[in-house]
């Protein structure tokens, strides 16, 4: 037994029960039509004991009494399921989490196939049902099932009886997004200026020195009013700084060598060659669109569909972090609230922390620590608690731990470390964590007073939406009906660093025989083959310049930019991750 266990209540030796999984193909379809969104679970905050006469009611011993008392909350809460003692679930001992503590963040962990995705789905359903918007990343496409009502089968029925759940097939209002249109969903993008140097360095795989040098490039562009909207804008600035004309300004920056700039440029071109320009540009996604509710007051579930970019984990994980950082920038301070303004699920969180620089990790820790005051709850979803750096893990007050595997000495060491982080309990955690059934978890959360609740072996409820991908026709129909589809569908390409630097070069290069002279600095090169920037440039003709644009293009204005920077340039300041502060 571990140091947390006591002899009075030995841990069970019986194999925990499995969760209901996706309904079999021949399972009877729910009566609710797939295109409608029936009312979310109405009794999510009721006491399960009141609606489950067949559920176990025996005492379960002192450990169950402790759980009953520890999870008896006054305010609205999410119901994970029923407490388990000696492999028996007690529906009159519900394991819950108050809505008011969701901005204290949390961790959902467990080995592959243990039920993490179903837990995420369950939480999203109940949050939406209580008016809380949800954002989640759908790595494999399974979570699109939230838009369809669930299908009953024997496992679902048995699980509902075990935990005292009034299970009803329910579809939830869902918005589907995609990164740059890669996959199904409304396309979303970010500008390079908004994304910032720290996050971009993570995507490009730059080392610390190269990351700091990239920061200087952004500083130069910010100071000189050179908007970095897409990858070709950043490439144009780096090419200019390493050209003969730009070398004096490169030298004036200090700390940025031509060799380092060249390395960054090569990585940027390689990144662009992979078609990454589709993810950057305008219109930039407004993260406040994640905070929407439906006309009947239910929370909207926003699914970022990622199957199309599964082979680019650094890109999509970093993009998720940008969304979170941008929310931090935009939202006002609200302090502790009765229920969060948004709950953000960060799936496959280990991808975010892999090979991350210290500056990047520090920024994540700062974001997680401070965004709670904006009313946003963040849940990291990963295989093991050790995937999350200790500084971030310390900020996660709520934990849902599915089964861990201990196949190697390192796994065994990690298991012992995980056990030590739990409050004192009569469960034999070291044994229990390796024997939990699919759809079972060890839970401890913060109470409404901020104190840790007792550790509870929990048999989780079954999601009421479809535990499989929604039909493609339904997904397509949902995307077509989106209220924001028109806002983000068409790419725009206004004047930015690429055009300004090209005009500057042309203005300073004397003509020769009707053509540009071969001397002087070449104009920024077009995007590499396979890039999409030139096509967008041709497809989006610019309007006739107005007075302001004519002034901006004037040589006097450019001279002012080069010498001292403009008021506009100085207003571009950066915050966490180097993202733009609005």
From TrEMBL:
The record's InterPro entries line, in alphabetical order, gives:
HerA_C, P-loop_NTPase, T4SS_component
In terms of CDD domains, this protein maps to: TrwB_TraG_TraD_VirD4 (cd01127)
Pfam families from the UniProt entry: HerA_C
Q: Where is the Helicase HerA-like C-terminal domain?
A: 91-579
Name of protein: Helicase HerA-like C-terminal domain-containing protein
Q: Where is this region: Disordered?
A: 1-61, 509-551
Gene3D superfamilies, alphabetized: P-loop containing nucleotide triphosphate hydrolases
Q: Which domain of life is it from?
A: Bacteria
**PANTHER family for the chain:** SLR6007 PROTEIN (PTHR30121:SF6), UNCHARACTERIZED PROTEIN YJGR-RELATED (PTHR30121)
Q: Where is the composition biased (Low complexity)?
A: 1-52, 509-533
